[in-house]
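Supplementary material to the annual report.
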Amino acid sequence: MRIGELCQATGVGIETIRYYEKEGLIPAPARTDNGYRNYGSAHLERLSFIRHCRALDMPLAEIKRMLGFVAHPDADCGDINRLIDEQLARVRVRLKSMRALEKQLSQLRAHCGAGHTAAECGILHELVAAAQGEACACHTKAP
Amino acid sequence: MRIGELCQATGVGIETIRYYEKEGLIPAPARTDNGYRNYGSAHLERLSFIRHCRALDMPLAEIKRMLGFVAHPDADCGDINRLIDEQLARVRVRLKSMRALEKQLSQLRAHCGAGHTAAECGILHELVAAAQGEACACHTKAP
DNA sequence: AAAAACCCTGTAGTGACTTCAGAGTCAATA
DNA sequence: TATTGACTCTGAAGTCACTACAGGGTTTTT
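Predicted assembly:
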């Protein structure tokens, strides 16, 4: 199976496959006479596994650890649990801040409809005022 | 005001301040005799504005546009509204995918408590199975 | 025979910083 | 006075996970 076929089979871009090889996430495959990469089903499975983990937004370093567990089936399962827990914690932190962000932005958006000049824009006023509030209240030294 | 003081006043790292200057988000300040950057209150306000926009996760390019509106108060306000709408749309897309992610991960996490080997781990089984399902069903050409 | 499609390597670019190396400047201390 | 420590400077490189490109070779199709 050539790289283009692997790309078709997994939906992973050719450049990305080569990148994963360079980064050591998939082993370097055998080459045909003309130097083309020649993949087998093990590569396909491993690449799909990687993409599934990436779809869970795991960093490549964590995926490497997961691949280590796949390769060592007698390792302790607790480490896998911890890894997923860490990932879940990261996702929840980001989720929380995204929710706050959505709220802030939609509130901000409500401060202005169209048809004004920038000088009259409630959005801009809010942003400038918020910036001033922050700069004065939060970080400056004693007066 | 030296760069360290501006850093204190705004909570923005020194290197980040220099980076913003290089990228043209804040104007290059005057220098003292020894070559140190010398900031005024206009810099402080502008930097706070930038950080507030960054806290809304706006890309620097959009923030540049916002700063343009601040500088041209007679511009049309509709552009500001559009900019915020775009940002809000981006945030909502990401929020949706983060929610899905959280769900997937917590479901995955439920497949295993501790105390097994990796071979017996429900999480690993799920991931491997999911990868196989994806590789077979979604992308391969006709059999 | 020529064109299109595929593959190769190696390098650079993305965004928004962060870190580092190597050097100069300034205030306070031994 | 010497020197320590804190601050500042520039410019380059590193981060993450790709993506795009330049410049070439190979295979398949027309």
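Helices of chain B lie at 3-10, 14-22, 41-55, 60-71, 78-109, 122-139.
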